[in-house]
Specification:
By secondary structure, the protein is mainly beta. It is about 5% helix and about 50% strand. The strands form 14 sheets. Strands 37, 39, 41, 43, 44 and 45 form a six-stranded mixed β-sheet that branches. A five-stranded mixed β-sheet has the order 10-17-16-12-14, with no helix packed on it. Strands 19-26-25-21-23 form a five-stranded mixed β-sheet, with no helix packed on it.
Length: about 650
């Protein structure tokens, strides 16, 4: 026998009855499952009717001893309490020291009876006070109320971010109905600066277009900023990836702005500081309807770059069309930039990142430079889109802030001046930094304006004022003529210093030693075409011997006409003997051999240059060993004992 049952319908109750099979002479239990919905309106005693049926005829059904097909189940639906906090759109609370703000949220009674509760909070940061006028609430079933919390910050409150927990607690048993967390940020003053590398954004009605914005804290301390849409065209939707930022002084951060719709016009975002309405910044975009042109975004949009440093940009190419597209890429900048790829294929409605690396060259001036990424459809190169980043190249300096200016003594003029003579040096000034250099060369030292006369000649202008005005990587050459006007012989130390016009600094080269000598010494000898040289005494001896030999040869030639061959041989022998007598005997080597480039001083205070055999007067105030520059060949010679 199969027994079935059906129940009456009650809103908020779910009743399930399974058919029960009963064998002859046995009994079975029929199970009825009843569940109540959370929003059931019936509370307390209730009843549901049941109607039974069987699959066989001739069967009698008794309920509670009475022959009937109908029965009922008595129900007691108990009441319950439930409060729910409806979370606000944002639970981030930003407050300036010494000011007040409020935090509000809605509370709904989802239970079946009235309920009383109190609002409590914990983890409140030091220097912050919380209070509320409606912290104790009593809500009827289905009622919604708003709770507002007043947040007060002391002027001396520390700038921290702290989560605060709010709980709704039952006034009956202390149980917690619901809770919500809020973040309190107490910040010092900061000044926001909002920027983007794009001036125009193409949008479509059904696809989101993305553009990067950058917010920078240009104030003198950390700050908390929020972004709002200040102006939006009709028919345009905007979504921000983030709307609240906390930045240290000088810090920057980028966020995405997504736009779609069928409108056109100006979209304006405003960044404002929580320190007051006067600290705000706006940036606008021209919203136009999309075309085949890609959308280009370059990030970061603002950056600083050190000299000889490399920075990497991320370029995003978005394809707004409904088919895959190939785009050619180009980067424009006064910096040295390179693209990771010159062409890319972007799927429909997608974006692909392209990396760009940039560094500064020796010709880049410190200051502002633009890096622009340009993308063009390969099939339609006349259409292009671009995005730019503003790069500030920091002025480079040497160790300890030294001026990057190189002064080189190209020619020293021999470093020796006759007593009434002169010499000419060549000085080269090169700008090895990345900023413009402008200044003047200053010559200082012993003897100037008291017998040592200087004359400058800047090439190629011929100016007598030793000034320079050179861009990075450029150089200027100028000659310096020093004349002796009655100076005493001896060494004179001179220094050349470059001084910047704006007082940025000075650079000097090592002191230059100028030797003023007495009247020039006669030549010390002669140089042969073979590369050998002989001194004066040896050359005179050879010359005199040659004269004697030539005379005897002439006499011998004349005598050959009158005398026999024997006489001629006697004369020739005499001539040979006379020549041998006149030849100078080799000097005995009594001293240690000299190394290459070394000489010994003569008794008269002079020395013969081993490179060109010129005799030069040596400084009187120096004792060997020391070095001097030969005035004839400019080689450095070492004088030893």
């Amino acid at each position: 026998l199969t027994v079935s049952a059906t129940s009456s319908t009650i809103d908020g109750l779910s009743i399930s009855i399974h058919d029960t099979e009963v064998k002859r002479g046995e009994s079975e239990i029929m199970t009825v499952s009843i569940s109540a919905d959370s929003d059931i309106s019936i509370v307390g005693l209730s009843s549901t009717n049941l109607t039974f049926s069987v699959n066989l005829t001739g069967v009698q059904i008794f309920v509670d001893g009475n022959e009937t097909n109908n029965g009922h189940i008595d129900l007691d639906i108990s009441p319950w309490t439930s409060l729910r906090i409806i979370a606000p759109q944002t639970n981030g609370i930003t407050i300036e020291p010494g000011s007040t703000t409020s935090f509000s949220f809605d509370v709904e009674n989802e239970g079946t009876q009235s309920v009383d509760a109190s609002l409590v909070w914990s983890s409140v940061p030091a220097g912050v006070t919380l209070s509320t006028l409606n912290g104790s609430i009593s809500l009827a079933t289905g009622e919604i109320t708003t709770i507002s919390v007043l947040i007060e910050s002391e002027q001396s409150a520390v700038a921290i971010n702290s989560p605060v927990n709010f709980e709704l607690v039952s006034t009956t048993d202390g149980g917690v109905f619901d809770s919500i967390n809020a973040s309190i940020s107490i910040t010092p003053r900061g000044i926001p600066s909002l920027s983007t590398g794009s001036t125009q954004l193409s949008i479509l009605a059904s696809l989101w277009s993305t553009v990067d914005f950058t917010i920078a804290n240009t104030g003198n301390s950390a700050g908390v900023f929020e972004i709002v849409v200040a102006e939006i065209p009709t028919g345009v939707q905007v979504a921000l990836s983030e709307s609240a930022f906390s930045l240290d002084s000088g810090a920057t951060i980028s966020f995405e702005v997504q736009v779609k719709g069928d409108g056109i016009g100006i979209l304006t975002l405003m960044a404002y500081s929580t320190t007051g309405p006067s600290f705000n910044s706006t940036e606008s975009l021209d919203i136009v309807q999309g075309s085949l042109a890609p959308q280009v975004t370059l990030s970061p949009s603002v950056v600083n770059l050190q000299h000889e440093e490399t920075i990497t940009f991320s370029g995003y190419i978005f394809n707004p069309t409904d088919s895959s597209g190939e785009y050619s890429l180009e980067v424009l900048s006064s910096l040295d930039c390179a693209l990771a790829a010159t062409s890319i294929v972007v799927p429909s409605g997608s974006s692909i990142e392209v990396l760009i690396s940039c560094d500064s060259t020796s010709t880049n001036l410190a200051g502002s430079h633009l890096v622009t990424l340009v993308a063009r459809p390969v099939d339609l190169p006349s259409i292009s889109s671009s995005s730019s980043s503003d790069v500030t190249l920091i002025e480079s300096v040497g160790p300890n802030g030294a001026l990057l200016l190189d002064i080189e003594l190209v020619e020293d003029g021999g470093l020796i001046i006759d007593k009434e003579g002169s010499l000419t040096m060549v000085v080269r000034v090169e700008n090895t930094g990345n900023s413009h250099k402008k200044g003047i060369l200053i010559l200082s030292g012993k003897g100037l304006n008291s017998g040592l006369v200087k004359t400058w000649n800047v090439q190629p202008t011929g100016s007598s004022l030793p000034s320079y005005d050179i861009a990075p990587g450029e150089a200027v050459t100028m000659s310096l003529t020093l004349s002796s006007n009655g100076l005493e012989s001896g060494l004179y130390d001179l220094t050349i210093t470059a001084s910047e016009d704006d007082g940025a600094g000075t650079v000097s080269i090592a002191p230059i030693q100028i030797f003023v000598q007495d009247d020039p010494v006669p030549p010390a000898g002669i140089s042969l075409p073979t590369g050998h040289s002989i001194n004066n005494s040896t050359s005179l001896s050879l010359m005199f011997g040659g004269y004697v030999f030539a005379l005897l040869a002439v006499l011998a030639l004349r005598w050959t006409m009158r005398r026999s061959s024997a006489s001629i041989e006697a004369i020739q022998a005499a001539a040979v003997e006379a020549a041998e007598v006149q030849e100078p005997e080799p000097e005995e080597e009594e001293e240690d051999p000299l190394a290459e480039g070394e000489v010994r001083a003569s008794s008269d205070g002079s020395a013969i240059c081993p490179f060109c055999s010129t005799r030069s007067k040596l400084p009187k105030d120096k004792t060997p060993p020391f070095r001097f520059r030969c005035p004839s060949c400019s080689e450095i010679v070492r004088v030893v004992e």
